[in-house]
Amino acid sequence: MISFDDTEKAFISKSDADLIRSYRLFKIIGNPTFVKLGGVFTPLALGLHLPIKGIIKNTIYKQFVGGETIAECNETIKELAKYNIGTILDYSVEGKEAETDFDACMNETIETVHRAKNDQSIPFCVFKITGLARFALLEKVSAKQSLNESEKEEWQRVKQRVQSICEQAYKFSKSIFFDAEESWIQTAIDDLATENKEKFNKETAIIYNTYQLYRHDRFVYLEQCIKEAKEKNYHIGAKLVRGAYMEKERKRALELGYQSPIQPNKEGSDTDYNLALELCVKNIDHVSICAGTHNEQSSLLLVDLMQKNNLQPSDKRIYFAQLLGMSDHISYNLSLANYNVAKYVPYGPVKGVLPYLLRRAQENTSVKGQTGRELSLIIKEKKRRKK
To answer: Domain range for residue 4?
Structure first.
């Protein structure tokens, strides 16, 4: 029986010093005022070359990021592998807009595929389309607006970058995730993912698209994807998440006067997420699942669904995934019970991954109970070790 309250297993890889550092960090990011001020002043301080890089690197960066380069992530990869947890290398530099930056991001993503080849401890790679294309172009393509000649050429370059990544993943039999992004650019991402799934997923799921179930239309879209894959005889790779852009989505919908794509409440997200798990397990001969969730109930539901359908914990078609530095009580308790688990391990220079780090801090502040849960488990483990 899996218990996410078993803190001995949850923090088996953490020294006493690690626990104290995590405790202090989650105490800080549990304070909304501190997080808000940090979001304003940290980028400013880095921009002014104030000496705060070391502070960031030894605190929030150390908790949530694997290193500045792929090579610097090797220790994290090895440490996770000791406990049967895989690594998903995630180049997390954001906010670039030049063609040279897009080509560099493509090459970096291909490097993660090359690092992952023949290494069972790196089961997946991942990329964001916004690392390969201008946001405004993705917005225009998603809205099905006409492109001028220059934009058509630009879009062809985007498609070629995506295909180059997918070709390398296919060549080395390494599954790769298309990350989901804002709803108003998601159609372009979905179309690119589908195009490459049809091409590379004939034998198994190499290409995974990400389904954000906090959107009220995504469960139906997942049903359609599975139906189409069956008809065209290819496999679906489905990374199931709740979602990461809720406040931004609702604000834009309100400002522009359209119906928000976000579920009316958390219960709606939870219901659709769990229905999506059931749908994927029901169609397991055509679908490979990565349940990207920090939700204990959904994780236990997937364990239950696997047991009811006589699927072994080690069945490679089903993975659980959490972010590095978060929800170790889910990751380690599952992995030590022989379920397939992977951690998203972001990497990149401190300044480049700052937007990612600020999102993690905001997420821990805004998600009800997230920081409290992390802290309560750390406190429980500290007490256990003192006995």
So the answer is: 1-65+375-387
Which CA distances in Å does 166 have to 174, 199, 254?
9, 9, 37
Q: In Å, how far are 31, 56, 130, 133, 345 from 103, measured between CA atoms?
A: 39, 28, 12, 9, 22
- Of 23, 28, 125, nearest to 70 by C-alpha is 125
Same-domain pairing of 241 and 142: yes
- Taking only the tens place, the pLDDT of each residue in 188-231 is 999 999 999 999 999 999 999 999 999 999 999 999 999 999 99
Q: Kind and range of the H or E element at 365?
A: helix 350-366
Most distant pair of Cα atoms in the chain: their distance? 71
Contact 216, 267 (CB under 8 A): no
pTM summary value: 0.93
> How many degrees, rounded to 5, is the angle at CA 268 between CA 273 and CA 332?
40
3-state secondary structure of 346: strand
